[in-house]
Amino acid sequence: MNRIMKALFPFLFGFLAVFPGLCYGDEEEIFANQVEPDALIVLDLSGSMESPPSGDAGYSNSKDGKGNCTGDKLYGAPTGSYNKYCGNNYLYIYSASDACTGPFYKSSSGRVDCRKKVIAKRAIYGLLDDDKSGNDKNYNKNKIDKQDELSLGVRLGYMKFDHCTYTFTTASEDSDYPGGCNVLRQGFWKLNDPGLSNGYYRTMYELVTADIENNADRTPLAGALSEAKSYLDASKTGDTAAACRQKFVIFITDGCDNLACGANHYTDINVNRGFTYKGRRSALAAAKALKDAGYKVFVIGFGGEMPKPLVNTLNWAAYFGGTFNPDVAQVGDTSAISLLSNPCQEEAVCTNFNPSAIGYPGGSDALGSDLDADCSYSPAPDCCTLAPNDPGFKNLTGYAFLAGDATALNTALRRTMDFVKEARYSFTVASVSGARITAQNYLYEPSFIPLQSDPFWQGHLKEYKIDDSGKVVKPAVLDAGDVLRGTTARNMYTYLGGT
After folding, report:
1. What does the pLDDT look like over 70-90, one tens digit per residue?
2. By three-state DSSP, how is residue 160 classified?
3. pTM here?
4. 431 Cβ contact partners less than 8 Å away, ≥ 6 residues apart
5. Can you tell me whether residue 234 is helix, strand or coil?
């Protein structure tokens, strides 16, 4: 029989004190409490951040005998007569607009500084100036105040690394986050603190501004993430809202780990350059450790035309860190990698690896360029592409945010913060029902499950059969949410105007 009922209960309110893991609040609304989340920004200030988004090389119309660019400007890709690949040497760093899409020039006259570290500073300014009172391209620190703290509603912290030159995989190897080359510069602080006349966001921006003038050396992805976890763990001490407060890491980087598992800045380049399968695996293990502790890791890769092994590694780090990029389709087999208890373990298949024997697109020179290693000789373990569970050569997309210019970096940083802000709310119920609608002999009920440990809510659309007496038969016939989660191709239908 045909039963058509009006929608019932836009939301189901209640107070259920028996659900563990929920922060309970008033019965009047499901968004019961607002507990400001914590977000730790980890900024890569390695030597490569001195380059523009196009990197430390590009295309010009002339070069010298040593392969250095000598033309009037530099592009990130071959453009007309600007088709000679050459080294930048940190000279071509200015562009006509603050989008920093190129071309890049040596002269600053009438142009914008487009070094990646400077672009990152401006993007962080845009985040801290949440009410946009300083949106005049002057980046006036005095426009960052307590009003921005209140409007953003997130307790921010800031950690950076620079001048890292020694092996660095775990927090203990760098004497933890108060010192060493990876340092916590600003811890989480109370928003709108009456003891701070201007708030602490402004102080954070001042620290970033000072830090970008002192970048150099290598990239300890695994070590920095490990120290981020150490700080997030410690930040719970004395926090009366620790059980409810969600914590995140926002990692801005332009490179792979080249300091994990014994890599050394001072070792001969042909012995250990550092960009190895061990370092890539270590970064994933550190991201997974953060997620397992209840902290999600957003990864923002910054740079144009990043090598595929780097892109893959950043996507895998985001995946194991429990996040994804909602603006890009998630493509790849996430079961292709299993994390090892010791990501630094040697792989016999790499001991006698011959780069010229694998048919890498572009040959061993291209492989060396992608790995920033010398792959012209054999055996070359650092150039190995065959190591088990190496994320560099397991294609994955749609998890990290990849920014090729200033506009994209601003968008990525703001997008990640949108997710963090969603974590401000706690909930009074384990499942919230939407409208219930019946059609024919079935009842359809949408619902979502707000999880305290995850801002990405799980949705359901269940179909229940109604028997001849009008009783709803349980369990549900199907759950469209479960069906969609296992489907990559989808068709969405709407009902409008009778069709």
Report:
1. 999 999 999 999 999 999 999
2. strand
3. 0.81
4. 12, 447, 448, 449
5. helix
